[in-house]
Every structure is written in C-alpha cells, then in structure tokens.
Amino acid sequence: MSTARRSPRPRKHVDLALQGGGAHGAFTWGVLDRLLEDERLEIAGISGASAGAINAVVMAAGLMAGGRTAAREALLAFWSSVGTSSRLNPLNGGMFGALFGSAAASWTPLGLYMDMASRVLSPYQFNPLNLNPLRQVIADAVDFDAVRRCDKVDLFIGATHVRTGRLRVFRNAELSVDAVLASACLPTMFQAVEIDGEAYWDGGYTGNPALLPLIAEATADDVLLVQINPVERDEVPTRASDILERIDEITFNGSLMKELRSIALLKRMLRDEGRPIERYRAPLFRRIHDLRLHRLDGGVELAQLGNGSRLAADPASLSRLRRLGCDAADDWLARNFTHLGRRSTIDLEREFPGEALPGRA
After folding, report:
1. How does strand 198-202 pair with strand 154-161?
2. Across-strand partners of 198?
3. φ, ψ of residue 129 in degrees (nearest 5)
4. Kindly report the CA angle at 58 between 52 and 64, in degrees rounded to 5?
5. What is the pTM of this model?
6. Whole-Å CA distances, 39 to 29, 34, 44, 186, 218
7. Phi and psi for 170 in degrees, rounded to 5?
8. Contact present, 183 and 228 (Cβ < 8 Å)
9. How many CA atoms lie within 13 A of 174 on its CB side?
10. Sequence-separated (6 or more) residues with CB below 8 Å from residue 197
11. Among residues 64, 58, 66, which one has the least CA distance to residue 26?
12. Which tens digits make up the pLDDT trace of 82-117?
C-alpha cells in the first residue's frame, strides 16, 4: 500500500467587503478571527470603510508579521487597546465610539453633549486642536511600512473626497495612518483629514464598502460582504432617537445598495444577452459574469443592539460583539462553505425585483 501523503486540498479564495459601523467593528473582528482560523480559506482582497478599514489594515500588518496567527493576535491587541482606553478614561472611550458612529444616536451624557455641540459648532470650533484618540492607537498597532509592501492581501480603503463628493480608494502602497483616519472621519465630530493637500471624510458616505475595486482588481470570484448596518426594519420609527438611528442606517447603506443594484442589473443583462463569456472584450464584464456574492451579518441580535451601542467601546461590549461575530461566521461557514467557488448565496434578483435597464423589457 502506498504511503505517499495526499496533497492538501487547495484553499478556496475569497475577497471580503467590510462595512463600517462604529464599535460594531468588533463584530467584524470576530468574523475575521474565525475566518483566519479556517485553513480551508484564503483571503485574497479586502475592501473596507471606517471600522472595516481599520480591521483590514490591522489584519494585513499581522499577516506580514507572522501569518494567520499573528493577524489574529494583532486584531486582539488592537481591540484590547480600544477597550483599555475606554476603561481608563470614559470620555476617551466615548470619543472612540464617536469616531466610528453617530453620537446623536446615543442618549448618554457624552452622546448628548456631542450631539448638541455638533449642531451648533463645527469640529474646527469645539475641537480646534483636532484631537483624535484613535491616531496613536492605530500607529501603535499597525506597521504601515509592512502594509504598504504587503503581498498577502490586496487592500482597498475608501474615503470621501470632500471637494468632489467622490469615492477615493487607497490601495496598499498608498496607505498610512492618515488614510485610515480619513476613511473613519465623521465630519460633524472631526476635522477633515488632509492628504496631499486634499480633504477627506468618512468613506461610508460613498462606499460602505466599495465593491467595484474588488470586482475590477482583486483575484477571487467570491466576494463575502460582512454587513453590520441593518438594511430593513420591521417598524417605522417614531421616537427622535430611533428616527436618527434609521437615518444613519439608510445613509450608510445607500452606496452599497446602489452598487448591489447595479451588479444585479449587469448580471441580468449579461445573462439575457446569452453570449459566451469569452466574447466579452471588457474584462469587467467577464468579472461580473463570474462574480459570486455572499453576505454575513449579525442577524437580529446585532440589529437589536441599536446605534447607541456603536459608541460603547468598553471591554465587555467589545468582547460580546467579538463573540457574536465568531458565532455568526461559524454558522455561515457551516451553511455556505460548500457553495464557495460554485454559486452566489445572495439572491440579487429577489432583493431587487423588477429592476430593468432603460429601453429594455
């Protein structure tokens, strides 16, 4: 009997699209921790905005330092630093949450103060020194020289160009502390981040996260969207705080919904044309034709936490969110791993029924 060892099965390659959503980024930390643990997967590219961008660069730095184990340790160290800052200085902890989320959605003393201040004063007035509690934490956690030369994963970090309102995507070689802070810069809380003389705000306004860079430039045909902002709510909000929460959710899902709708239209058009894939000269058409989309979210449990919890950067809250992310990823893998490389697990035709291109039946 032959004693030759079987070659291990090739890993399934997947690109990740990571939403921003305040301290709920700790949910994404849990997802990444579970995905990195699974040796059957290879993460090829990541598009991220705000907290999603931060998770992406921390993970990339860890991969360069020592592979999957180091990446998991880097994510743990970063979020532990955020939690420690919150425990030692409650005001600073609230500022971490405000950096990611909407202070107006939190009825804490800090949330109320920042809400009132942002309605009367700009951050250039109430924060003239442009203090940003996350700058040093990111600088300590991420070796950006390693990120810029990273050959383990392709990064696409989105920010909003203030003058034009267009999406700016920072790729590996362009990444810095400022690029990541730009991706997470809420304009009512922090001064715009200037890079090469141009001002940037939170990437969630124009791409939360941006899917096109993954489709056009990354290598995997499977894209997994890690979504932490609920798309649908069962009830119409009537309280002021609930209305503000829903406005935030709609705003920060808007760009993603437009991209998903466009992808659905293009895939339907390509299917209706019925051409062999090799006849499409445009590489983007071929990529969209082959694209398989998947989604992982926190379900009812994450949605019920509300926007106010996005400001909760204390260790207990972050740990709870991480566990929720790990469990959600574990459940998703159990149900969907076999579909990777085979088919989409998002039914875009069901989500966007009746959409049609102008002039088409």
Report:
1. antiparallel
2. 195
3. -85, -5
4. 135
5. 0.88
6. 17, 10, 13, 37, 20
7. -95, 125
8. no
9. 15
10. none
11. 58
12. 888 766 554 444 445 555 444 434 445 555 555 666
Distance between CA atoms of residues 66 and 139, nearest Å: 19
Q: Does position 5 have pLDDT exceeding 80, yes or no?
A: no
pLDDT band with cut points at 50, 70 and 90 for residue 134: confident
What pLDDT sits at residue 117? 61
DSSP 270-313: HHHHT--GGG--SHHHHHHHH-EEEEEE-HHHHHTT-GGGGG--
- pLDDT for position 49: 96
| Cis before 209 (ω within 30) | yes
Sorted by sequence, the CB contacts under 8 Å of residue 326 that are 6+ apart come out as 30, 31, 33, 34
Place of tokens 């340790």: 73
SS3 category, 84: helix
Binned at pLDDT 50, 70 and 90, residue 270 comes out as confident
* C-alpha dist (Å) from residue 162 to 117, 195, 224, 258, 263: 22, 11, 29, 20, 26
Taking the CA atoms of residue 284, residue 288, residue 289 and residue 293 in that order, the dihedral angle to the nearest 10 degrees is 160
pLDDT digit string (tens) for 22-62?
Answer: 889 999 999 999 999 999 999 999 999 999 999 999 999 99
Q: Would strands 222-227 and 198-202 be described as parallel, antiparallel, or unpaired?
A: unpaired
